[in-house]
Each structure stands twice: as structure tokens, then as C-alpha cells.
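Q: What residues go here?
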């Protein structure tokens, strides 16, 4: 009899890094709950997983709403099994210089990145503790080191690094690891939107970034998914509280 597969939750799984991560974890043999703000948005990722022979579930959840998060985790545990891998990937940007930034844009970014990661982790950790196994991977960014026009996003991503390190200290004795993955420039729809806002052709925008990256290319969602795949594995059990920059070279 085959053992029941481990269950992973990937937030912000409708597209980009989240979709690539969900697909990769499914190929690794995990059942995957794909969470996005709207269930309909997550269905394309779930359909791709099921077409490839995997098991997945689409859930519509606002990760900044405690009641919705708790209900989603209950549903996932009931339909897929107890989740023991959590990828906190959901995120938004509301870029602006600080003197132009409205309070609502600060709050929105903090709610999704920080509060959302807190609520998801709080809801899922009980299943990890019971299983005496858990993998928490939080998506940070090189922007945590400071980036013009992103005072809210940079603060949130830096906050996630401290959040991760504290989780590692608190939960390690239960067989749970917590790590952050901090991508550099990745060719995603989110960055394409930035290029559009700056009125720069996408190919030119990518080339400019690639020239400043030691490996001389932009990152792909699969580059991030591959790193998350390792951190979610049983073989990564002695790596915890770390921030891993996946940026094609050293970062300052």
C-alpha cells in the first residue's frame, strides 16, 4: 500500500513563482493546495497538475483574513490531508516614493506579505507539530536590502526574514524547519507590469537587468521553484532559519 503523499500549501499559486512552485512540488510527489485570492484564478494551476497525474485543490482565500485562512486549512486537511509543507508566496506591490505613498498602499502590502504569512503559518503549524515534520518556506526578495520606490515592499520582505528566523527557533524542536528564499530579478508578469509602467519594452527591460547579473540572464520561476523543492524535502532537515538569495550572483 502506498503511503499518503505529503500535502503542501502554496499561496499566490495562480501564476508566476507560485504556479511554478506548485507544479514542481507536485512532480516531487506532494499533493498541493493552490491558494489564491479567487478560486477561479487557481484552477489553471490545479488543472496543469492534474493533467500531469498529480493531486491538487484550488482554494480561494484572502490570506490576510484570519477566518478565511482557518477555513481554508480545515478544508485542505479534510480533502487532501494534513498539510506539512507551507510556501508563503502570496504578494502584491504598490510601488511609490515615500512622500507619494498613501497609507492604504503601505497597509495593503503589509497585510498580504506579513499578516498573510503569519496567519497561514499559525493555522498550519499545528498539523506540522502533530506530524513532527514541517517545512515552511517564506518568499522574501533582494528588495529586502533596500530598493528605491519600494519602501513598503522592502520593509515587508525584510520583515519576513526576521519572521522566518524566529519560526526556526520556536518550531525546530518539532522537526519543523523555516527558511526564506529571496529572489533577484525574475521574468514574471509582475515585473512585466513594472516595465509597462515605466514604458520600457519588455525585452529591453530584461536585457538591462541581465547585464547586471553575474550569470548574465534573468531568473525564471523554475529557478525559484527548484530551490523551494529542495528546502521542502526531507533532505533539507538540517537547514533552518536561513535566507537563500537566488539572484544569479552575490548580493550586497
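A:
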Amino acid at each position: 500500500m502506498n503511503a499518503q503523499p505529503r500535502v503542501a500549501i502554496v499561496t499566490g499559486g495562480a501564476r508566476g513563482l507560485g504556479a511554478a512552485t506548485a507544479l514542481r512540488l507536485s512532480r516531487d510527489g506532494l499533493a498541493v493546495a493552490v491558494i489564491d485570492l479567487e478560486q477561479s484564478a487557481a484552477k489553471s494551476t490545479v488543472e496543469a497538475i492534474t493533467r500531469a497525474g498529480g493531486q491538487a485543490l484550488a482554494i480561494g482565500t484572502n490570506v490576510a483574513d484570519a477566518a478565511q485562512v482557518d477555513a481554508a486549512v480545515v478544508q485542505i486537511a479534510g480533502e487532501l490531508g494534513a498539510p506539512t509543507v507551507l510556501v508563503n508566496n502570496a504578494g502584491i506591490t504598490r510601488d511609490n516614493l515615500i512622500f507619494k505613498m498613501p497609507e492604504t498602499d503601505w497597509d495593503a502590502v503589509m497585510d498580504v506579505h506579513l499578516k498573510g504569512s503569519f496567519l497561514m503559518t499559525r493555522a498550519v503549524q499545528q498539523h506540522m507539530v502533530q506530524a513532527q515534520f514541517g517545512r515552511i518556506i517564506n518568499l522574501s526578495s533582494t528588495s529586502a536590502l533596500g530598493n528605491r520606490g519600494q519602501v513598503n515592499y522592502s520593509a515587508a520582505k525584510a520583515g519576513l526574514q526576521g519572521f522566518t528566523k524566529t519560526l526556526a527557533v520556536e518550531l525546530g524542536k518539532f522537526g519543523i524547519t523555516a527558511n526564506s528564499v529571496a529572489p533577484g530579478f525574475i521574468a514574471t508578469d509582475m515585473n512585466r507590469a513594472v516595465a509597462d509602467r515605466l514604458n520600457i519594452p519588455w525585452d529591453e527591460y530584461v536585457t538591462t537587468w541581465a547585464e547586471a547579473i553575474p550569470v548574465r540572464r534573468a531568473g525564471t520561476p523554475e529557478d525559484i521553484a527548484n530551490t523551494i523543492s529542495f528546502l521542502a524535502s526531507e533532505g533539507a532537515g538540517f537547514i533552518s532559519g536561513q535566507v537563500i538569495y537566488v539572484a544569479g550572483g552575490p548580493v550586497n
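A: Context that may help when evaluating the design: The two ends are 50 Å apart (CA to CA). The mean pLDDT is 96.
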